[in-house]
Design a protein that fits this description.
Layout (H helix, E strand, L loop, with lengths): L8 E2 L5 E4 L3 E5 L4 E5 L4 E6 L2 E6 L4 H22 L2 E8 L4 E5 L2 E5 L6 E4 L4 E6 L4 E6 L2 H13 L10 E4 L15
Antiparallel strand pairs: 1-6, 2-3, 3-4, 5-6, 7-12, 7-13, 8-9, 9-10, 11-12
Protein backbone atom coordinates (compact mmCIF):
# COMPACT_ATOMS: atom_id res chain seq x y z
CA UNK A 1 0.00 0.00 0.00
CA UNK A 2 1.28 3.45 -0.89
CA UNK A 3 2.20 5.39 2.23
CA UNK A 4 1.58 8.70 0.48
CA UNK A 5 -1.45 7.66 -1.56
CA UNK A 6 -3.56 6.50 1.39
CA UNK A 7 -3.33 9.85 3.20
CA UNK A 8 -6.38 12.05 2.60
CA UNK A 9 -5.81 15.56 1.26
CA UNK A 10 -7.17 18.21 3.64
CA UNK A 11 -9.09 20.97 1.88
CA UNK A 12 -8.97 24.34 3.75
CA UNK A 13 -11.83 26.84 3.91
CA UNK A 14 -12.33 28.84 0.73
CA UNK A 15 -11.04 26.07 -1.56
CA UNK A 16 -13.46 24.14 -3.77
CA UNK A 17 -12.55 20.76 -5.31
CA UNK A 18 -14.68 19.26 -8.08
CA UNK A 19 -14.08 15.88 -9.71
CA UNK A 20 -15.42 15.06 -13.19
CA UNK A 21 -14.97 11.81 -15.12
CA UNK A 22 -11.23 12.30 -15.71
CA UNK A 23 -10.60 15.87 -14.52
CA UNK A 24 -9.94 17.41 -11.09
CA UNK A 25 -10.55 21.16 -10.71
CA UNK A 26 -9.38 23.10 -7.65
CA UNK A 27 -10.50 26.71 -7.14
CA UNK A 28 -9.26 29.00 -4.39
CA UNK A 29 -8.45 32.60 -3.56
CA UNK A 30 -5.21 32.61 -5.60
CA UNK A 31 -6.54 30.97 -8.77
CA UNK A 32 -7.90 27.88 -10.50
CA UNK A 33 -5.99 24.70 -11.44
CA UNK A 34 -7.08 21.63 -13.38
CA UNK A 35 -5.47 18.20 -13.73
CA UNK A 36 -6.49 15.20 -15.80
CA UNK A 37 -6.01 11.75 -14.33
CA UNK A 38 -5.87 8.21 -15.67
CA UNK A 39 -8.55 5.56 -15.03
CA UNK A 40 -6.19 3.46 -12.83
CA UNK A 41 -7.10 5.69 -9.86
CA UNK A 42 -10.37 6.98 -8.39
CA UNK A 43 -10.51 10.47 -6.87
CA UNK A 44 -13.39 11.35 -4.51
CA UNK A 45 -14.01 14.79 -3.00
CA UNK A 46 -16.16 14.46 0.11
CA UNK A 47 -16.57 17.25 2.63
CA UNK A 48 -13.26 18.85 3.54
CA UNK A 49 -11.05 15.98 2.29
CA UNK A 50 -10.09 14.41 -1.02
CA UNK A 51 -9.34 10.67 -1.10
CA UNK A 52 -7.37 8.93 -3.86
CA UNK A 53 -7.75 5.15 -4.28
CA UNK A 54 -6.59 2.73 -6.94
CA UNK A 55 -8.78 0.31 -8.90
CA UNK A 56 -6.31 -2.57 -9.10
CA UNK A 57 -3.02 -3.64 -7.55
CA UNK A 58 -0.99 -3.47 -10.78
CA UNK A 59 2.42 -1.84 -10.80
CA UNK A 60 1.16 1.08 -12.91
CA UNK A 61 -1.83 1.71 -10.61
CA UNK A 62 0.43 1.66 -7.52
CA UNK A 63 2.71 4.23 -9.16
CA UNK A 64 -0.17 6.55 -10.08
CA UNK A 65 -1.75 6.26 -6.61
CA UNK A 66 0.89 8.36 -4.84
CA UNK A 67 1.48 10.59 -7.85
CA UNK A 68 -2.10 11.81 -8.21
CA UNK A 69 -2.51 12.23 -4.45
CA UNK A 70 0.52 14.54 -4.41
CA UNK A 71 -0.62 16.42 -7.52
CA UNK A 72 -4.01 17.12 -5.92
CA UNK A 73 -2.29 18.13 -2.65
CA UNK A 74 0.00 20.56 -4.54
CA UNK A 75 -3.02 22.06 -6.30
CA UNK A 76 -4.84 22.60 -2.98
CA UNK A 77 -1.76 24.19 -1.37
CA UNK A 78 -1.12 26.32 -4.44
CA UNK A 79 -4.57 27.91 -4.69
CA UNK A 80 -4.72 28.53 -0.94
CA UNK A 81 -1.16 29.54 0.07
CA UNK A 82 0.94 29.60 -3.11
CA UNK A 83 4.54 28.55 -3.77
CA UNK A 84 7.83 30.47 -3.60
CA UNK A 85 11.29 29.75 -4.98
CA UNK A 86 14.29 31.99 -4.18
CA UNK A 87 17.46 32.33 -6.25
CA UNK A 88 20.73 34.01 -5.23
CA UNK A 89 23.07 35.73 -7.69
CA UNK A 90 26.77 35.60 -6.81
CA UNK A 91 29.53 37.34 -8.76
CA UNK A 92 31.16 40.72 -9.25
CA UNK A 93 28.87 42.87 -11.37
CA UNK A 94 26.11 40.26 -11.48
CA UNK A 95 22.69 41.74 -10.76
CA UNK A 96 19.02 41.61 -11.70
CA UNK A 97 16.13 44.03 -12.08
CA UNK A 98 12.47 44.00 -13.09
CA UNK A 99 11.40 46.08 -16.10
CA UNK A 100 7.66 45.70 -16.60
CA UNK A 101 7.00 42.00 -17.37
CA UNK A 102 10.70 41.32 -18.02
CA UNK A 103 13.42 40.13 -15.68
CA UNK A 104 16.70 41.69 -16.85
CA UNK A 105 19.88 39.94 -15.69
CA UNK A 106 23.48 41.18 -15.93
CA UNK A 107 25.52 37.97 -15.75
CA UNK A 108 28.92 38.83 -17.18
CA UNK A 109 27.93 38.33 -20.81
CA UNK A 110 28.46 41.11 -23.37
CA UNK A 111 24.72 41.89 -23.32
CA UNK A 112 22.12 41.74 -20.58
CA UNK A 113 19.75 38.76 -20.65
CA UNK A 114 16.01 39.58 -20.62
CA UNK A 115 13.57 36.85 -19.56
CA UNK A 116 9.79 37.24 -19.88
CA UNK A 117 7.91 36.46 -16.66
CA UNK A 118 5.18 33.89 -17.48
CA UNK A 119 1.50 34.63 -16.94
CA UNK A 120 0.38 33.57 -13.46
CA UNK A 121 3.79 34.14 -11.86
CA UNK A 122 5.37 37.14 -10.21
CA UNK A 123 9.04 37.85 -9.63
CA UNK A 124 10.58 40.32 -7.22
CA UNK A 125 14.17 41.44 -6.80
CA UNK A 126 15.63 41.92 -3.32
CA UNK A 127 19.00 42.63 -1.69
CA UNK A 128 20.18 45.18 -4.30
CA UNK A 129 19.51 42.83 -7.20
CA UNK A 130 21.24 39.80 -5.66
CA UNK A 131 18.10 37.80 -4.81
CA UNK A 132 15.20 36.83 -7.10
CA UNK A 133 11.96 35.54 -5.55
CA UNK A 134 9.55 33.73 -7.90
CA UNK A 135 5.99 33.22 -6.57
CA UNK A 136 2.86 31.67 -8.03
CA UNK A 137 0.06 29.19 -7.39
CA UNK A 138 1.20 26.47 -9.84
CA UNK A 139 4.12 24.53 -8.32
CA UNK A 140 5.27 23.11 -11.67
CA UNK A 141 5.35 26.53 -13.33
CA UNK A 142 7.24 28.12 -10.40
CA UNK A 143 9.88 25.38 -10.46
CA UNK A 144 10.25 25.44 -14.23
CA UNK A 145 10.72 29.22 -14.38
CA UNK A 146 13.21 29.15 -11.50
CA UNK A 147 15.24 26.42 -13.25
CA UNK A 148 15.22 28.43 -16.49
CA UNK A 149 16.64 31.44 -14.64
CA UNK A 150 19.28 29.25 -12.95
CA UNK A 151 20.32 27.71 -16.28
CA UNK A 152 21.32 31.14 -17.65
CA UNK A 153 24.50 31.07 -15.51
CA UNK A 154 25.00 27.84 -13.59
CA UNK A 155 27.07 28.13 -10.40
CA UNK A 156 30.69 27.20 -11.02
CA UNK A 157 32.65 25.25 -8.39
CA UNK A 158 35.85 27.34 -8.19
CA UNK A 159 34.65 30.81 -7.16
CA UNK A 160 30.95 30.02 -6.71
CA UNK A 161 29.85 32.59 -9.30
CA UNK A 162 26.47 32.18 -10.96
CA UNK A 163 22.82 31.73 -10.04
CA UNK A 164 21.89 29.17 -7.37
CA UNK A 165 18.83 28.31 -5.33
CA UNK A 166 18.87 29.96 -1.91
CA UNK A 167 19.04 26.65 -0.01
CA UNK A 168 21.58 25.10 -2.42
CA UNK A 169 25.15 24.60 -1.20
CA UNK A 170 27.91 24.80 -3.81
CA UNK A 171 30.84 22.53 -2.98
CA UNK A 172 33.91 24.56 -3.89
CA UNK A 173 36.94 22.96 -5.52
CA UNK A 174 40.56 23.87 -4.99
CA UNK A 175 42.17 25.52 -8.02
CA UNK A 176 45.52 24.75 -9.65
CA UNK A 177 47.45 26.78 -7.07
CA UNK A 178 46.03 24.70 -4.20
CA UNK A 179 47.38 21.41 -5.57
CA UNK A 180 51.04 20.57 -4.86
Amino acid sequence: MSRIGIKPVAVPKGVKVTVASDLVTVEGPKGKLTQTYLPEVVIKAEGDTVQVTRKSDSKQARAYHGLYRNLVNNMVIGVSAGFTRSLMITGVGYKSEIQGKLLVLSLGYSNDVAVAIPEGLSATVEMNGQKIVVTGFDRQLVGKFASEIRSLRLPEPYKGKGIRYEEEKIKKKVGKTGVK
